[in-house]
Amino acid sequence: MMASNNLANKGAVVITGTSSGIGRATALYLDRVGFKVFAGVRKEEDGNSLRQESSDNLTPVIIDVTDNDSINRASEIVAESVKEAGLAGLVNNAGIPCGGPIEFVPIDDIWKVLHVNLIGHVSVIQAFLPLLRKASGHIVNIGSIGGIQPLAFNGPYSASKAALKTLTETLRMELRLSGIQVSIVIPGNVLTAIWGKGGESRAERAGHLPPEIFEYYGQTLSKLIPFFERMRKTGMAPEQVARVIEKALTSKKPKAHYLVGLDAKIQALMARFLPDKIRDRIMLHYMGIST
Length: 291
Hints:
By secondary structure, the protein is of the alpha/beta class. The chain has ten helices and seven strands. Helix 5 (155-174) links the parallel strand 5 and strand 6.
């Protein structure tokens, strides 16, 4: 464990989904630069792992964004710790993948990804807003370029991130007069376990899929294997996203949107300026699917 930074001089921040990837990198980075970090995890062992690499200013807290009791208990723990100082920031990072041909994705899977990636964030925001008001804090939601330029066969995930972007836009206007800033960080491809998780969930579902899926989509889906493998192995380090999150939290005039990564910036420009049919062809070619 690292030595304590004495009193964290940048205020307190809550981060959800810190067991791995962007959330873990952000928790450790914000701890290093002087925040008091409440790192949301679902399992105690993940919290213990974070403690091994952090200072005394990082406190793991059990937060399951799909469980309101868990969220409320976490908000009580944080409130008892920060008292009248309130929260300088809330980073809504928790998320799960969900993909496949929309025609065959189980409805329960779609409900789950929307619950974790969207509704859960609303529950967390509602629980922690009283503490954010005390410090005129900053809400940072973690989106995805998939919410602006979606990939084929990744519809449920992309839909959840597009909805989160819209929610962020609305919340930013609603909280404008309260002094609470709201931003969304939109990364491109990141070196995280999410591609592996997606592959594992697809493999788990394979035995339960109707035979028609292989008749209609089998040839196309087989071409996606190299693409997902490439995405799993390439991309920017999650620490790059963590640095942008810190910038959003500490800026006196934060941006509404932060695009992170060259691929995110290119795809955002494509979504803004290119005709739909041309974008479709480019994205399908990018994924290795000929038309």
